[in-house]
Amino acid sequence: MSCRCDRALDRAVQLAQEWEAELIAAYVIDPAETRQFRFDRTPASWRRLPSPVDRMKWRLKRDLGTAADTIRILVEEGEPAEVLLSMAAREGCDLIVTGIARDETLGRMFLGNTVNRLVRGSPAPVLVVHDRAVRHYRDIVVGTDFSEASLQALLLTAQFFPAAALTLFHGYDVPFSGYLDEQDFKRDLGAMEKELGTKFLADDRVDSRLRDRTDVVIEHGSPERLLSDYVEDQHVDLTVIGSHGRGALFDALIGSTAKNLIETLEGDLLIVHYNPKE
Q1: pTM of structure
Q2: Where are the transmembrane segments (predicted)?
Q3: How many domains in the chain?
Q4: pLDDT computed for residue 263 by the predictor
């Protein structure tokens, strides 16, 4: 219920209206962070003590107006990430939308513990919202390593956003590339881009409409830096990453370097979990 969640809430409302989906506002009371009064806890005679549910309804009504009337509210107590994952599983949620923490000293975004655990533990996609919901997601880039997880991320993105322009983006490092002939390197890179992109989009699950609206971009260099630069340069609204829990791409983006990516990435980030056993 803090201001850092406002953008995620606004985006969730916009998506729920766009998809005609049910929106659940989940609020978890963390006992570890609840204020404990050491002295007189008797309320003033004029103060009415609302229940957590009533208080949340009042806050949503104040912030969203009539849009709050269509939101179902769940309030539970416990460790936030654990309870939120349990709520999402119990309610059969198709998407988790969350804001991101802010370091007030440094004035920068960072991946908080709750969001980190949501990303790692949720079988449902997790949308991490940075930006204000000023428009629909129109330009979307899907980070790919041409794996099954990346393909599932592309297919889900196409399903969620059928009118958006899509770009498959692959960044990679070539050892000792400085010693390679520049012209040969560019020629080989172009050939590889065409071959990999064609093969990836030739999968039977990719229909002709999706193929026609998907571009492929392959660049040499640090994947995190290239992706961040591309998103900013092309004014991308949403970046999508497919994860299979422990793969190299997931570890690179959600592991030790994840904080750099999420702190510096322009726009919002959707993480799509892929479990080959499902």
Answers
A1: 0.80
A2: none
A3: 2
A4: 61
